[in-house]
Amino acid sequence: MGQLQGEPVVVLRDPLGLVDRAVAIPRSVAPFIDLCDGTRDVATLSTALELRTGLRLWPGYVERMLAELDEALLLENERFARAYRQTVDMYRSAPYRLPTLAGTVYHSDPQWLDRTFEEYFNMASSGAEDTPGIGRVRGLVSPHIDYNRGAAVYAEVWRRAAAAAREAEVAVILGTNHSDCEKLITMTKQSYGKI
In whole angstroms, how large is the CA radius of gyration of the chain? Predict the structure, then answer.
């Protein structure tokens, strides 16, 4: 929900991020989305919306709205399927997994990130003499929160476990999947670092 030019709108975005585009639909027309289930043609969509809401759309409006939804890959059709396949193929053929949240949740410049992480570790190291050592590390639970709020905890956890992580022959990483809610676990062999 939001506002566009003072009018309440529903903003729709591709949850997979295949395209960086959003569609704003007037809130009064939002029931139209429920009708786009693949069982109705353009004329039937207009009639169904009018029967449901009493709202009569001017000629061409439905076609324009469908075209906008299609451009934003919000319709389950061949265009969406092709874009999805291309994205999956690019992902699987890449030498490493691209950082999907760079530039949004954290800075996209690797040098800036290195400096920032170094500051976090220096902050954690300043109290290192007060913390007891740890024995052999067999596993690690690290927080899952944005760096601005979790920096001190991240730094302390990884300061203590850094040597063990460097010596490990195998690392199994379990992370939070923010995109695919259909499966409990999503496995990948994709590398998580630049090679």
Answer: 24
